[in-house]
Design brief:
The protein is α+β, with helices and mostly antiparallel strands and 209 residues long.
Amino acid sequence: MLKEYHKIETLFERDEKTKKLVEGAYRNEAVEFLKDSLWEFTEKIDGTNIRVYWDGHKVSFYGRTDRAQIPADLVNRLNELFGGDVNEEIFEQKFGGTEVMLVGEGYGEKIQKGGLYRKGQDFILFDVMIAGNWQPRESVENIAETFGIDVVPIVLKGTIQDGVNFVKQKPKSVYGTADSEGLVGRPKVELQTRTGSRVIVKIKVRDFI
């Protein structure tokens, strides 16, 4: 059954009066416990969430929710990357009848400020779920290579504080002339909280300006 992509939690609590983040007031106790462990931080691309779903027989495209509208130019690009008989055979060869969800960002011209990233519109992969399990980075990169698509770059490896320090420098994006929107961080090893949610956070530049 196709799942909506979960929201990625902000790192710290927000002061209700000032609306600013309170550094050190972690929203998630698991993140706080792991803050000095090794994390991988990828660039957070400013676009629209896209899910590419293989149900074991055919490929379908969805936004973050099942009702979300996908821009027509982006649908055309997704069909180039994943549609047609050849790509269907690739999905079948690689995954068989197993359900797979490729999650990425549709980005580029006319999507947010995406014209600063690139001309036209494209899809960049950042997560893969196979049979209900989120895949490690190595698997995500392998699947991206199979379909000849980009994968969000790892821009930093370090502690949570390293990630905060990085966004405070107002870094540039890896792509085009855009400013970086921030980071998505996850432990080097995929982990879940006691309630079964993923340990994954976002650290946005605008929260530290």
